């Protein structure tokens, strides 16, 4: 149903294309050429990618008889969910709205979460993932940095990854500027940065500094655009849409979990021994003194 509705909308846009103002034509062409990205990206990101203002996107929505931008984008999002290999029409989800207003809210939240996970992991192609793993495992030192809400996710990734790669460091280490920790880095090292809109200037500056030091740069973000001028060696993109006012970080977490899984597999027997040693240490510490 979702795909049929979308096809009808795309056909309508093509039929009415010549009647649109030049700016709206530019927006319409981008959407017709990039329906998947349009279904994933928030309005500001779509405006950046298409080269028009957010107001033009709202105008285009109204030209096509939608009340607003979100109503216009909704068929694209639904088509993505329909095409997803993840089945979101399970019995428990279908029955949630029958349990009152809270059930309806939980159903929308669950559907959004499943969609975010599916779309973020779909964008994580094997080629991009392999580039990340190759660079991480070959680096002398891997520096991981993030700020704001991404800070906790970056810390979690480093905490687990260091069991496989002891050379992984989380920066800044003492609430200072991450640049301080990159002062002695060189072209044998890598910076893995996590930043999403609104992009942290602290993280952006750290990326710029890393590039000046000759370091490789890996980025996990919500768009290919924010650090494009730095030409990252690899980028993994997460969907961040949310039914409430704040971004949803499930996509970023799913990407990090997948990277950790790949690192453990790549680490082989050495990684297995490191993990077992850590688990044994924790067991001793929880039971009695390790000394």
Distance between the termini: 64 Å
- CATH architecture of the largest domain, by name, is 3-Layer(aba) Sandwich
The low-confidence parts are 85-89
Report the total helices. 13
The domain count comes to: 3
Give the spatial strand order of the biggest sheet: 2-1-3-4-5
Concise description?
By secondary structure, this protein is of the alpha/beta class. The chain is 59% helix and 8% strand.
Describe the overall structure.
The protein is built from 13 helices and 5 strands. It is α/β, with parallel strands linked by helices and 291 residues long. It folds into 3 domains: 82 residues, Arc Repressor Mutant, subunit A (Orthogonal Bundle); 35 residues; 164 residues, Glucose-6-phosphate isomerase like protein, domain 1 (Rossmann fold, 3-Layer(aba) Sandwich). The chain has a 5-stranded parallel β-sheet, with helices on both faces. Helix 10 links the parallel strand 1 and strand 2. It is globular and about 65 Å long. The termini are far apart.
């Amino acid at each position: 149903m979702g795909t049929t509705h979308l096809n009808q909308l795309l056909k309508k846009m093509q039929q009415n294309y010549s009647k649109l103002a030049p700016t709206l034509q530019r927006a319409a062409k981008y959407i017709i050429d990039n329906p998947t990205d349009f279904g994933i990206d928030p309005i500001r990101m779509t405006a950046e990618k298409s080269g028009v203002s957010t107001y033009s996107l709202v105008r285009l929505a109204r030209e096509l008889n939608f009340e607003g931008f979100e109503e216009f984008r909704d068929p694209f999002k639904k088509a993505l969910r329909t095409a997803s290999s993840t089945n979101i029409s399970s019995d428990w989800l279908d029955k949630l709205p029958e349990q009152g207003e809270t059930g309806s809210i939980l159903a929308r939240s669950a559907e959004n979460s499943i969609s975010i996970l599916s779309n973020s992991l779909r964008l994580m192609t094997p080629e991009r993932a392999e580039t990340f793993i190759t660079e991480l495992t070959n680096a002398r030192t891997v520096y991981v940095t993030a700020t704001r809400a991404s800070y906790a996710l970056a810390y979690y990734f480093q905490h687990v990854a260091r069991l496989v790669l002891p050379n992984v460091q989380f920066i800044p280490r003492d609430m200072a500027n991450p640049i301080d920790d990159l002062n002695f880095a060189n072209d044998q090292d890598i910076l893995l940065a996590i930043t999403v809109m609104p992009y942290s200037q602290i993280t952006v500056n750290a990326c710029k500094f890393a590039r000046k030091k000759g370091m490789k740069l890996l980025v996990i973000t919500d768009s290919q655009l924010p650090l494009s001028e730095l030409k990252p060696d690899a980028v993994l993109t997460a969907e961040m849409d949310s039914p409430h006012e704040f971004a949803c970080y499930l996509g970023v977490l799913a990407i990090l979990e997948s990277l950790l899984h790949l690192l453990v597999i790549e680490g082989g027997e050495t990684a297995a021994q490191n993990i077992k040693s850590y688990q044994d240490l924790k067991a001793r510490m929880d039971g009695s003194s390790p000394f």
